[in-house]
Amino acid sequence: MSRGKFIGAILIVIVMISLLLVSCGGNNSTSSYDTNRTAGSHSEKEMKEREEKEPIEIVQEISIAAIGDMLIHNSVYNDAYNGDGYDFTPMLKRVKPFLSEATISIANQETMIGGVELGLSSYPTFNSPTEVGDALKWAGVNVVSLANNHTLDRGEEAIQRAIKHWETIDMMYTGSYKNPEDREDMRLFETEEGISVAFLSYTYGTNGIPVPIGKDYLVNLIDQELMAEDIKRAKDKADVVVLSLHFGNEYERMPNQAQKDLVQFVADEGVDVVLGHHPHVLQPIEWVSGENGNRTLVIYSLGNFLSGQDEFYRQIGGLFKFHVKKSIINGETEVKVHSPEFLPTYVKYTNWRDFEVIPMYQLTDEELPNAKEHYDEIKKHMSIWLQDLKFIEE
């Protein structure tokens, strides 16, 4: 082959290879590159939106029940005497299921269980057998409020004896303490559900009996500065703050302005629930708005739960129940008090014997004439400011 023909053949091969490369790689040229294309925008691949993860939510719930005055008159403990000692459990048998069903139950123990050797109850001073505490424990009560106008009736010795017994039966007490260190120990109830509840208790006074000098720990008196400090400490430690107030006028069925003002004060301080006692008759339930937009659940008076008083409205008390929900969503905690309920109760006895606390919805006309009419009137009274209040009837 001549030199010229050889060179021509090479040129033909080069041209053919160049044409082949152009036909295979033309789409890679910068002139045809689609700048709007993304890694996921291939036309042959279906696009799917990324699903958002469900928030991690943990919800726990408890219930709290509260009863009013355990005011143990002579007639009551005489009826409880069985020859060897005192047994108050038959008096509470019909309400035990409601007390024991709640996660926490609190009672206002108005008479000090200082022991029979100190002398028993005769107005205006009271003292009760320690078996009252045993009966409350048996019925399902976990906490007792001890700050009331009868706390100092039998002096410091009765208080110390009472506290010793409460400790013996492992019952939390609040409002009266054995020493300064005991008072500084916040009453914090830690539930198995992981919800903590702080209990505080205060009274308007002690029937003129002076608190021993240097022993303010024996009884918490209503003092707004002191209460504000205690509430702040409680809120720092607990999910819920429940505050008992011994206040108001005896035998008045509606709260007075002083009660409303004090409730507004503690609501502004952030208390979640207020339990009132002292009037010995029922006063209504309502929600009170605090200055920070919070809501405080209030019952102004729980009435007498067990006592020897003999006028009709003084024989009526009740069990106040509410629920606490704690939600943790993506690490953020929210605690809410909700769904208040009420169980009206009646103290039945005959000739100062056979004392028994009975749910009003269970009463027959033989036990209380016109029982249903009385029950309906009490329901109307308690729900006057809370129209959707639920009444416990099972």
UniProtKB/TrEMBL annotation:
Family the UniProt entry places it in: Belongs to the CapA family.
PANTHER family referenced in this protein's UniProt entry, alphabetically: CAPSULE BIOSYNTHESIS PROTEIN CAPA, POLYGLUTAMINE SYNTHESIS ACCESSORY PROTEIN RV0574C-RELATED
Taxonomic source organism: Ornithinibacillus halotolerans
Ranges of Polar residues composition bias in the record: 31-41
Basic and acidic residues bias: start-end ranges: 42-53
Xref: InterPro entries: Capsule_synth_CapA, CW_Biosynth-Accessory, Metallo-depent_PP-like
Domain Capsule synthesis protein CapA: 63-309
Highest taxon of the lineage: Bacteria
CDD domains linked: MPP_CapA
Region (Disordered), start-end ranges: 31-53
Protein name (database record): Capsular polysaccharide biosynthesis protein
